[in-house]
Design goal:
By secondary structure, the protein is mainly β. The protein contains 4 helices and 12 strands, in the order ββαβββαβααββββββ.
Length: 173
């Protein structure tokens, strides 16, 4: 699962011919349309699935998998998380889009080069994504992941530069 990334979740069946209703991140419709093979993981079971068709209806993706042809087969996978190859998903990213898994562990510096901490996670508050940055005293500070505050993300060199405005992250002496 190390080279896989979650892209959706099987919520329920749609119709009687084995179509599934997927929940997914809004704005990622093109990404879903271009996937050919995905993996459904529920508990410790992981099943490879081939996508036959994808359409969108009322905020959900309606997907037909080659291997699923009935409601009963859908119900066995209800609640499963759908994963795609990280290399496939990465190829669909736009400029200034990053995989959450690629941001975790990056070192955080201010614009003067002072090391502030490390990214421990990414969450969202509805308006924007938030970087969780753990600093030397083990406290965690949330940094809105917007260009004005995070002018540089360098995945290759494992670092992020932030514009550390007053009150964002304390500079420890």
């Amino acid at each position: 699962m190390a080279n896989l990334i979650s892209v959706a979740k099987i919520l329920n069946f749609h119709g009687i011919k084995g179509e599934v209703k997927l929940g997914y991140t809004k704005g990622k419709e093109e990404q879903l349309k271009h996937l050919a093979v995905v993996y459904a993981k529920k508990a410790s079971d992981c099943v490879e699935l081939t996508i036959e068709s994808v359409r969108f209806h009322k905020g959900y993706a309606i997907v037909k998998f080659k291997e699923i042809n009935s409601i009963n087969e859908v119900m066995e996978l209800k609640g499963a998380i759908i994963y795609a190859g990280k290399d496939v998903v990465s190829g669909e990213l736009k400029e200034d889009e990053y995989l959450t898994s690629d941001l975790k562990g990056l070192e955080v510096f201010d614009t003067e080069g002072l090391r502030l901490g490390v990214v421990t996670g990414v969450s969202e508050n509805g308006a924007t994504d938030l970087l969780s940055v753990r600093i030397r005293d083990d406290s965690v500070h949330l940094v809105p992941f917007v260009k004005e505050l995070v002018p540089l993300v360098d995945i290759e060199n494992k670092k992020i530069v932030i514009n550390n405005i007053d009150g964002l992250i304390p500079k420890l002496g």
